[in-house]
Amino acid sequence: AEYMGASTDGQLRFWDPRFSESVRCIELGASLSAFEAHERTEVFAVGLLESRYIQVYNLAGDLLNEIKFREDFTGQRIGAVCSLAFHPYRVMLASGTADSYISLYSIDKHRRI
């Protein structure tokens, strides 16, 4: 079993309890404000410190989706992300922001949350 950990400098490390060093590292290239890995799927999400973005990756480090602040009338308003949490069974992501908002995101496009 591997464990994951992220640091504010944008490094995601994979750990195997049998070894004293990390077994793999992914450089995300940006400072992180939040990190969350889904327990049952091979995805993780990060909140970027210097921008109003949430990025979702697979365990290989490939960017799957990006949720970002939009200025237009119908666009999303995302504050500085300070916490992320996945639903334990569904692929749903909750984000908490510094402006006291909680948002829910789902891969199911036909269902309103």
Report on this structure.
- This protein has a four-stranded antiparallel sheet, with no helix packed on it. A three-stranded antiparallel sheet has the order 1-2-3, with no helix packed on it.
- The radius of gyration is 15 Å and the shape is globular.
- It has no helices and ten strands.
- It is 0% helix and 48% strand.
- Strand 6 and strand 7 form a beta hairpin.
Global Rg: 15 Å
**Poorly predicted regions:** none
Total strands: 10
SSE sequence, one letter per element:
EEEEEEEEEE
User: Approximately how much helix is present in the residues?
Assistant: under 10%
Q: Going across the biggest sheet, name each strand in turn.
A: 4-5-6-7
* Head-to-tail CA distance between termini: 34 Å
What's the average pLDDT? Answer: 87
| Major β-sheet annotation | 4 strands, antiparallel
Which structural category fits the helices and strands? Answer: mainly beta
| Shape type | globular
Please work out how many helical segments DSSP would assign: 0
- Beta-strand content: over 45%
Layout of secondary structure:
Blueprint: E1 3-6, E2 11-15, E3 24-27, E4 32-37, E5 43-48, E6 53-58, E7 63-68, E8 81-86, E9 92-97, E10 102-106
Antiparallel strand pairs: 1-2, 2-3, 4-5, 5-6, 6-7, 8-9, 9-10
What's the short version?
The chain is an all-beta fold and 113 residues long. Helices cover 0% and strands 48% of the residues. The strands form three sheets. It has a four-stranded antiparallel beta sheet, with no helix packed on it.
